[in-house]
Amino acid sequence: MSWLDLIGWCGSALLVVSLMQARVLRFRVLNLVACVVLTGFNAALEIWPMVAMNVVLTLINLWHIRKLVGTRHDETAYDVLEVGPGDEYLRHVLSNHEADILRFQPDLDWDGSAAGRLAFLVQRGDETVGVVLVRDDGDGVARVLLDYVTPRFRDFSPGEFVWRHSSVLRERGFTRVVTPAHMVGAYYGRLGFEHDGATDSWSLDL
User: Is-contact 145 110, C-beta < 8 A?
Assistant: First the structure.
């Protein structure tokens, strides 16, 4: 097998792998790389229709990546909707993503009928991309019970719009957000949360 054949096989394999991605940004990035590789491969073989197709696909991927990255922290791109803790649609979302949610938070036990429970959906257009569940711990403290992102948007952090770009918690009288222990810290650290080493939790003054 020549080096040119190897490049062609690698590009084709990467293209297949990109189509298997659930995450929208990861799909676009991998598909972009595959298109660039296949553009070079087909140009070397002088297969110009395939070169033209891959050039167009490269430009399409670049456009989508620019749009996705550009709206990552854009508060106009997402809406935060408060729903009842026992809301039927909320139950549907939690049930539909139950297996995935329990992979990341196996100790979640959501009882929408319990006192002090609040639920928020993060929407991008008509698509639900995140779910945030909190408990009122009193003294203005909102305890995070779940901060979930659907697989398509896992390269983003839509939950940040509940903490930073939405007044829904402040309007409810909360002055502080506290996460459970052992949550991944990079996402919260970027938003100004402070880490408590003693409890391994993160907190943010609203």
Answer: yes
